[in-house]
Design a protein that fits this description.
The chain is 40% helix and 16% strand. The protein starts with 7 loop residues before the first helix and ends with a helix. Bound molecules: ligand 7TS.
């Protein structure tokens, strides 16, 4: 019996809620995770006791707030094994981080005739910034071909990565198929041609131990809210020499060194990219989320997510009239499926009546929906507060949905 990794009732008060007369079963963590009590309390304490703006004033609260904010950056850097804290730039989330790379790095490094390599399984936020970059520069987008089970093979990477490739941008883990992509191999190929590897870690950083340099990531984007942290805070990691060469894209207070009426010079990295008052409480909350995840252990979380993902895959595969997408194994914590003859939105509606929260739709991955040949899917996703019970509830909810629509 696979149990949740944590004391759910104590750590996640929201999961004690009852929805439509049933225990809330949260199978929508790929959209956003629930927040542990420790994160909620840390943010509460920050606003109750230490709130002030950071990196400017010298009074006691400013000092406390600045220390808390700076500590959060240090914790985040250690969590992904960055070389130094300054390689962590705080953003609003994965979307903003990827836009920042495409603008700040892409506009300088990419020229007409260059190629940007993506995959059809990318989230829209790892496609559209590159489409826009290609438009601005005259570069070409190339898509790696997916194998039948939705995986990316080394051969397929070799076919698209070449001397013209300036950027390869791939998710480490798909938010729809649960595929775990061969980033290290892709990075080695693009590095051979002098290009850079951009990793969308929105689904992977919450679920596996991340070591950016071993992974081969030159840039890594992720969001706090999918890893037990608050919304509105995210990270762009970048290798220091790339960040130093990169242009800022948000201009204003705190990102400058010297300003006169006509010109300005930039502050050092990371302040250069963090114009304006940052999301201080968000960063502090992210620090608390990292403490919480590290306390449980990222290797244990990875094992748990994979075990539940694979169990759910097998369980759903054995139900007649249910299509399950993505590889059997390794299968990460997100699982897309359809029930024959029932629209995914109707599936989600019946599930909600049973207290089960899933997402239905295109999951911000329309090119992947085209590749799958469907308009949309239902999706269940798991995290450390889910257990085998929840896989059983998922199966029961599917059987109930089938009965409901057969009546
Ligand atoms: N990349 C991936 C792989 C994602 O799963 C998401 C969010 C993003 C980027 C964007 O992250 P954001 O925090 O900037 O919004 N994915 C989902 C999802 O699957 N359902 O809701 C949001």
């Amino acid at each position: 019996m696979i149990k949740p990794l944590v004391d759910v009732a104590q750590d996640f008060p929201i999961l004690n809620r009852r929805i439509n007369g049933h225990r809330l079963v949260w199978l929508d963590s790929a959209a956003t995770s629930q927040k542990p009590e420790s994160v909620i309390q840390t943010m509460d304490r920050f606003y109750h006791e230490s709130n002030a703006n950071v990196l400017r004033s010298v009074h006691t609260l400013a000092d406390e707030a600045t220390t808390a904010f700076t500590d959060a950056r240090v914790k985040t850097a250690q969590f992904i094994r960055a070389g130094r804290p300054e390689e962590v730039i705080f953003t609003r989330g994965t979307t903003e981080s990827l836009n920042l790379v495409a603008r700040g790095y892409g506009d300088q490094a990419v020229n007409s005739g260059d190629e940007i390599v993506l995959s059809p399984m990318e989230h829209h936020s790892n496609i559209i910034p590159w489409q826009q970059l290609a438009r601005r520069t005259g570069a070409t987008l190339r898509y790696v071909e997916l194998a039948q089970d939705g995986t990316i093979t080394i051969d397929a990477l070799e076919r698209v990565i070449g001397p013209r490739t300036r950027i390869v941008a791939l998710s480490r883990i798909s938010n729809v198929l649960g595929t775990i992509n061969p980033i290290t191999e892709a990075a080695a190929m693009v590095h051979q041609h002098g290009g850079v590897m951009v990793v969308d870690g929105a689904q992977s950083v919450p679920h596996e131990a991340t070591a950016v340099r071993e992974l081969g990531a030159d840039f890594l984007a992720f969001s706090g809210h999918k890893m037990c942290g608050p919304t509105g805070i995210g990270v762009l990691y970048g290798r220091m020499e790339l960040l130093e060469a990169m242009e800022p894209v948000m201009f204003g207070g705190e990102m400058i060194s010297y300003v006169d009426q006509e010109t300005a010079t930039w502050a050092e990295v990371p302040q250069k990219f963090e114009g304006g008052t940052p999301n201080i409480a968000g960063a502090v909350g992210l620090g608390a989320a990292i403490d919480y995840l590290a306390g449980v252990g990222m290797d244990a979380i990875h094992e748990h997510s994979r075990t539940l993902g694979e169990l759910a895959f097998e369980t759903l595969k054995s139900i007649p009239g249910v299509a399950v997408y993505g590889p059997a194994r390794p299968h990460a914590a997100a699982l897309a499926f359809n029930i024959d003859g029932v629209h995914p939105h109707d599936v989600a509606q019946v599930f909600d009546s049973l207290g089960v929260a899933i997402r239905a739709g295109h999951h911000c991955a329309q090119p992947l929906m085209h590749w799958l040949g469907v308009g949309s899917t239902a999706r269940a996703s798991f995290y450390l507060y889910n257990g085998q019970d929840d896989v059983s509830v998922l199966k029961e909810a599917i059987l109930e949905t089938k009965r409901f629509f057969q009546r």
